[in-house]
Design brief:
Helix content: 25-40%
Strand order of the largest sheet: 2-1-3-5-4-9-10-8-6-7
Shape: globular
Structural class: alpha/beta
Number of helices: 12
Order of helices and strands: EHHEHEHEEHEHHEHHHEHEEH
Largest sheet: 10 strands, mixed
Distance between the termini: 35 Å
Strand content: 5-15%
Number of strands: 10
């Protein structure tokens, strides 16, 4: 594989990194030959620094010794990597607005955020700068930007794809993930990263009624044609309640456990390096230091119950249909209080797969006010290939 790191891609979208630019030619042969992909700037490339969305992280860490295996797999499958893509600072945001490096353009929702933290990967894919892109998803960082940008996004089963050589945020939630503009390519990439799994026949098709109940009526109305399309392709959707405890309680448990892991992972570096953190990230990093052992124990009890509940719900290859997030992408420069409210509502949906470690695919099947609105399928642990096959079937 040749290193071709000299030329920064032609990029009017602000999707690619200038500060950590590196391009690598793939093997030229394999199932992804002739395709290009972007790589979120959390994945190591041998001989180059990884930025993690933070100038201070970049300044305090040496070049990588090895290329992350997930990137190496895509290169070996024939795809070329023209550059690394922007990420939110320390990947601890859902917006795509990086105070240090700017906000990639959302071509399918002009004037609105692309979503984060895989902002550059989503923007580059939606804008046609690459054929597909590698991101990561801890709390929703593939699924949310896929929904906002009107593309397909896949979060695999937790632990299914190696995160060796990737910057960690919260290890019991972190997953690799990827974007594509069409379901067939999303599945092809999945076959490289996941192996040649034969998907089982789908079981019951379930509709997350309590997730829909959290949405504005206009959003629910906008989702109806997409739900009808899924039903026509896969069968009648049976309404179910996902969380007996309430999705808001699930989100609070997710927030505490994720926050505690973030503090354990990054708190020492923040204390030592004293980085100049941007708004939102700064406040959240201060908050995670206040989480108590009792908070964590209570949250873990909720997580354990959520996992049992989802395991029971998705038995026999059942598939859950739900909104990806709570609405279309917020406008650029939305006031912080409004963004926090949107984040809470979005995370109350995104936390479902996160708490239980489940695979989830977001499909660009709906619109509202001319902007994309994602719909998701969630399956049982290990049923990643099933989701990719169903996404392709729905796409037709």
């Amino acid at each position: 594989m040749a290193d071709a790191s000299g030329t920064i891609p032609d990029d009017a979208l602000g999707a690619f990194c200038r500060h950590t630019h590196v391009a690598v030619a793939g093997s030229g042969k394999g199932p992804l030959a002739g395709l290009t992909f972007g790589v979120k700037d959390i994945y190591d490339i041998a001989g180059h620094k990884t930025g993690f969305g933070s100038p201070d992280w970049l300044a305090t860490h040496p070049p990588a010794i090895h290329t992350a295996p997930v990137v190496a797999s895509l290169l070996a499958a024939g795809a070329d990597m023209p550059g690394k893509t922007q990420t939110d600072e320390l990947t601890y945001s859902l917006n795509g607005e990086n105070a240090h490096y700017g906000t990639p353009v959302n071509v399918n929702a002009p004037g609105r955020i692309p979503g984060g933290s895989s902002s550059g990967s989503a923007a580059a894919t939606a804008g046609g700068l690459v054929d597909f892109a590698l991101g990561s998803d801890t709390g929703g960082s593939v699924r949310a930007p896929a929904g906002f940008c009107g593309i397909y996004g896949m979060r695999p089963t937790h632990g299914r794809i190696s995160l060796e050589g990737a910057c960690a945020l919260a290890k019991s939630f972190d997953t690799a993930g990827w974007f594509a503009r069409d379901a067939a390519l999303l599945e092809r990439v999945g076959q490289v990263l996941l192996g040649a799994d034969v998907p089982p026949a789908p079981g019951a098709m379930l509709l997350a009624q309590d997730a829909l109940a959290m949405l504005n009526p206009a959003v629910v109305a906008a989702l109806q044609p997409a739900l009808a399309r899924i039903s026509a392709a896969l069968g009648t959707l049976k309404p179910v309640t996902v969380s007996a405890q309430g999705l808001a309680q699930w989100f609070q448990a997710f927030r505490v456990l994720q926050g505690a892991e973030i503090h354990a992972q990054l708190g020492g570096w923040v204390k030592e390096a004293q980085p100049k953190l941007g708004p939102g990230v700064r406040e959240r990093m201060a908050w995670v230091a206040t989480i108590s052992a009792a908070d964590m124990a209570n949250a873990q009890t909720v997580r354990d119950a959520a996992r049992r509940s989802m395991d029971a719900l998705l038995v026999d290859n059942a598939v859950l249909v739900m909104p990806t997030v709570s609405g279309i992408a917020p406008l650029l420069n939305t006031p912080a209080a409004e963004l926090d409210d949107f984040r809470t509502r979005a995370m109350s949906l995104l936390c479902i797969a996160g708490l239980a470690g489940l695979p989830q695919v977001s499909l660009p099947l709906a619109t509202l006010q001319g902007c994309p609105l994602g719909v998701s399928l969630v399956a049982a642990l290990g049923n990643d290939a099933l989701l990719l096959a169903l996404a392709r079937r729905i796409a037709g």
